[in-house]
């Protein structure tokens, strides 16, 4: 009986992981379409550009929902590791983002494209924090 429950839980986790990966790929694809599409079809087709942006937002919402379902599907330890990594990522993003704003207003740093660098920074922080959590709870 217990083996059957573990198998069912494993299948649910794998299905949630697959949906999460698919939603993430969909979001990345629509992001690329929204970013590079206007260069392909020209500035005169604003309706197509708006459709690509809306598709990207919808795909992003689906990705968030898929991640929420993934968190519900994983076991307690995996969920704790992910939530700890998310907390560290959120904190690092807030501190780095507002630190940059203050430094820029004080004239300490030059003009940097924070909209590009901040998500990259937060992605790296999440991966490092997640790996550290996996090592910690081995």
From TrEMBL:
Keywords: Membrane, Transmembrane, Transmembrane helix. The chain crosses the membrane at residues 16-36, 48-71, 83-102, 114-133. This is Uncharacterized protein. It comes from Cellulomonas terrae. The lineage of its organism: Bacteria, Bacillati, Actinomycetota, Actinomycetes, Micrococcales.
